[in-house]
Amino acid sequence: DGGITQSPKYLFRKEGQNVTLSCEQNLNHDAMYWYRQDPGQGLRLIYYSQIVNDFQKGDIAEGYSVSREKKESFPLTVTSAQKNPTAFYLCATQPKGNYGYTFGSGTRLTVV
Amino acid sequence: GENVEQHPSTLSVQEGDSAVIKCTYSDSASNYFPWYKQELGKGPQLIIDIRSNVGEKKDQRIAVTLNKTAKHFSLHITETQPEDSAVYFCAASRRSNSGYALNFGKGTSLLVTP
Questions:
Q1: CB–CB contact B32 A98 (8 Å)
Q2: How many CA atoms lie within 13 A of B102 on its CB side?
Q3: Is the model's pLDDT at A1 over the cut of 70?
Q4: Would you call B98 and A56 a contact, using CB atoms and an 8 Å cutoff?
Q5: Which residue on chain B is closest to A97 by alpha carbon?
Q6: Which of A40, A97, A104 sits opposite B100 (nearest CB)?
Q7: What is the pLDDT of residue B97?
C-alpha cells in the first residue's frame, strides 16, 4: 500500500525534553512538509523540503528542527526551545509539480 | 505572499440541504485550488481540486467553481449527509521559490444535523 506513516500517534513530552516525530512515505513524492494544527485553528507551516539534503523554514520554525537524509523520510524534532509544543502535527507529501498534498494521519503531542 | 481567506468559519445545515464555502485569494498567479476535508483526529484528505483553466468541476455531490477575475473559488456540497460533518480547508498555489507550497485558508467547520 502506498502512503504516509506518521508515528507515534500520541506522544507525551516532559518539560525540557527533545522529541522526534517520524514521517515516512513510499509514494516516491519529492516534497515533504510539516504543519502544526492547534484546536480550532488552521494549518501553520513549520518546515518543508523540496529535495533530499535540502529544507527551508516555514512560518513557525523556531523551536523545531528537521533533516532530509532520504527521500522517504522527513523527521521533525521538537526541541526544548519550543515553549508551547502541545498540538497536532501533520506531515504531508507532494509529487513534483503543482499538485495537491497527501497528508499523514498526524501525531498528537502533549507536554506533561 | 499569497493570502487565502475562507468564509464562513462555521456552518450548520440540515440534512439534505446544500452547503457553500467560499475562499478568496490575493495572488493572481495562483493556478491550482484544492479542497480538503478533515475529520476529527485525522489528517486532511483531498476531496476535489480545480485548475485555473477550468471554471467548474463536479464529482457526485461535490462541486467547485472558480472565478479568476474576482479571485475567488467556492465549494458546493449538495444533498448534505451527517457524514459530511467535518472541517473543510481551501488552498491555493503557484510556482514560486518555495516550489508549489499550498497556502491554506483557516478552515470551515461544517455540521450537518439530521
A1: yes
A2: 31
A3: no
A4: yes
A5: B100
A6: A97
A7: 77
CB contact under 8 A, A94 and B100: yes
Is the pLDDT confidence value at B101 over 80?
Answer: yes
Interface of A with B in 44-103 (CB under 8 A): 45, 48, 50, 56, 90, 92, 94, 97-103
Contacts of B25 (CB under 8 A, 6+ apart): B2, B3, B4, B5, B33, B71, B72, B73, B92, B103
Q: What DSSP assignment string belongs to A39-90? A: TT--EEEEEEEEETTEEEE-TT-TTEEE--SBTTB--EEE-TT-S---EEEE
Calculate how close chain A gets to B41, using CA atoms only, in Å: 8
Sign of CA dihedral A65, A70, A74, A75: negative
Q: Looking at per-residue confidence, does B98 or A32 come out higher? A: A32
pLDDT of B15 reads 98
Instruction: Quote the minimal CA–CA distance from A111 to chain B in Å.
Output: 18
Average pLDDT score over residue span A1-5: 80
Radius of gyration of chain A measured on its C-alpha atoms: 13
Task: Please enumerate in sequence order all residues whose Cβ is within 8 A of that of B75, keeping only pairs 6 or more positions apart, or say none.
Answer: B20, B21, B23, B35, B48, B62, B63, B64, B88, B90
Question: Chains A and B: how many Cβ contacts under 8 Å?
Answer: 60
